[in-house]
Design a protein that fits this description.
Butyryl-Coa Dehydrogenase, subunit A, domain 1; Butyryl-CoA Dehydrogenase, subunit A, domain 2; 12 helices; alpha+beta; 3-stranded mixed sheet; 9 strands; 3 domains; 4-stranded antiparallel sheet; single chain; Butyryl-CoA Dehydrogenase, subunit A, domain 3
Length: about 400
């Protein structure tokens, strides 16, 4: 897709958000129903096809454009990127590492929205330390694989229809353990696979977060992504860099929304006979908020460009995720301060944004993990990769 076409797509999504989503956010948040009409409109706009290669019916967008879209969606309604981010991770893994049969079978249906993807990684005893997973997919006498175990905190886990599940195909592998880890493809409705329940969260209630159970699920030997076991961690880590950039871009969108809500409120709210925007204390808050949003966006886009160039970017993607997520928490709190008491009531959007911001700090690898990744890369002499040496 040419640059002008990509810019036109971003602008089209911006218009969609402004005209069709923003006026409905309060109503959508008040409803308990899953927003099927919103999802259908996102499918119609091609948002489920954005990372699928063109030869399989997708748009094949670059990482920087993907990041720009995540920001636009989050700036309208923060739930929107969550409906497609894990779906895009599934599409990316299959596009980059799947066999031709896997690509032909699944990618066109993921692009059309017929299938919705979810990626199942986390377990009760394995969050950031994914090499500690216990879910297994082991060969049976008939040549099939038998999938046993469970996953928790799976975004879109109930609504998805195609799952990529991180498993151990060789539990004895220990040097390192990642050599015995693979990614399996599991379709909804496969006997033995069930959604055990949903987690109730303090925000993002419309984005289902599920527990999955695999009770002796029978899979074909061709269910392993790429057809060869033992490459799951490498496949995951390659794509998770893009996922972290997407999370960071979504956090920028939240920060941008909090800033704009604060600017609008500051212009309208009066104290001591003048709009509070005239008070220097409020102006200082607004200035800091804007600077932090812009700085986070710049880092996110730099990480996106590095990823698009095919260079190693675990360090800069971690930086982008760290800075953008912490920014969203700081800016949403500043927005509550600008609003005063009004920021603490649900009739104003910043109350919701303040509750939503922490998810970006703990998802896609906690920020403490990001700091360790960054420090290790720096100590290994990779600072030059980011122009720091």
């Amino acid at each position: 897709m040419h640059q002008e076409d990509e810019d036109a797509l971003v602008e089209a999504i911006h218009r969609f958000v402004v005209k069709e989503i923003k006026p409905r956010v309060a109503q959508l948040e008040a409803q308990d129903e899953y927003p099927h009409d919103v999802i259908a409109r996102m499918v119609e706009l091609g948002l489920f096809a954005i990372v699928v290669p063109e030869q399989y019916g997708g748009l094949g967008l670059s990482v920087p454009v993907y990041a720009r879209l995540m920001e636009e969606l989050a700036a309208g309604w923060t739930s929107l990127p969550s409906f497609i981010n894990s779906h895009c991770s599934v599409s990316s893994i299959l596009a980059r590492f799947g066999t031709e049969a896997q690509k032909s079978r699944y990618l066109p249906r993921l692009a059309s929205g017929e299938l919705r993807g979810a990626i199942a990684l986390t377990e009760p005893n394995a969050g950031s330390d994914l090499q500690a997973i216990r879910t297994t997919a082991l060969p049976a006498e008939d040549g099939s694989l038998r999938l046993r175990g469970g996953k928790i905190f799976i975004t879109n886990g109930a609504q998805a229809s195609l799952y990529l599940v991180l498993v151990k195909t060789d539990p004895s592998a220990a040097t390192p353990a990642k050599g015995g880890i693979s990614i399996c493809i599991v379709e909804k409705g496969t006997p033995g696979f069930s959604v055990a329940g949903l987690f109730h969260k303090m925000a993002f209630k419309h984005v289902d977060t599920a527990e999955l159970v695999f009770d002796d699920v029978k899979l074909g030997a061709d269910a392993i992504v790429g057809g060869v076991p033992g490459h799951g961690m490498a496949q995951l880590l390659d794509v998770i860099e893009t996922g972290r950039i997407a999370i960071a871009a979504s956090a920028v969108g939240l920060g941008r929304s909090a800033l704009n809500a604060s600017l609008e409120f500051a212009r309208q709210r009066e104290t001591f006979g003048v709009p509070i925007a005239n008070h220097q204390a409020v102006q200082c808050l607004l200035a800091e908020m804007a600077a932090k949003v812009m700085a986070a966006r710049a880092l996110v886009m730099e990480a996106a460009r590095e990823k698009q160039q095919g260079r190693r970017c675990d360090m800069i993607a971690g930086m982008a995720k760290l800075i953008a997520s912490e920014m969203s928490a700081e800016v949403s709190l500043a927005a509550v301060r600008v609003h005063g008491g009004y920021g603490y009531v649900s009739e104003f959007p910043v109350e919701r944004l303040y509750r939503e911001a922490p998810i970006y700090i703990v998802t896609e690898g906690t920020n403490e993990i990001q700091k360790l990744v960054i420090a290790r890369r720096l100590l290994a002499g990779d600072g030059a990769l980011c122009g720091l040496a």
